[in-house]
Design brief:
Four Helix Bundle (Hemerythrin (Met), subunit A); two-stranded antiparallel ribbon
Length: 240
Amino acid sequence: MPDRPDATLAAVLGSLEQARLDRRVVLSTSADRAARALREQVVEGLLRSGTRLPEERLAQALGVSRNTLREALSQLVAERILVREPNRGVVVTTPGAADVVDVYAARRLIEPAAVLHGRAHDPARLAAVHAAVAEGLDAVRRGRWDEVASANQHFHRAVVALAGSTRLSHQMDLLLAEMRLFFHQMDRPDEFHRPYLDENAVIDDLLARGRRVEAADRLATYLSTAEEQLVRFIGAPSVA
């Protein structure tokens, strides 16, 4: 949980409202669009575990009705990004090790397959993978580890985009939101992210040279290593 949850929430609300006013994000009465805007705040690390979401302030920031917002919140609860707590209302969830195992099971099926079998390895999408690597390296140079984590999210989003499937890309957005909540629990983000940033660069190079099999194998190993590391830190999942 952030040290100053009220200040963090105020910043998120301000960002959502300004985006709406600037028309960078167009929100009408669509619960799906409202859910997407809130989900992206989680993906980018702005909404953190334990943050309570006040309905009236959120609806005003997003420019939607309370009923529309409630639909959006229910959608995010079903996606395991939010949870309803007695006497607190809707809060951003705090995932456990079992969630890590389940998310990585999905990622190992999706990401290497997008690398190996994707039908959209075009110059623009490969450039997006490369841009995410460059973004991460720049953030490291500036010592901005939250931005390194965001760049890592952008890398994996770009990798899945190589599949050329809007459905898979949407599914990846759901997984990335949960991933960011895992990252928030790591007490040394520099030690956690740095090795994977280097791996991103290797995978990017292999993709640029058309060496898909090696890139897919490297990514599969990378995902297994990251899962083990997160499970060790968060705690082994209990067995029912």
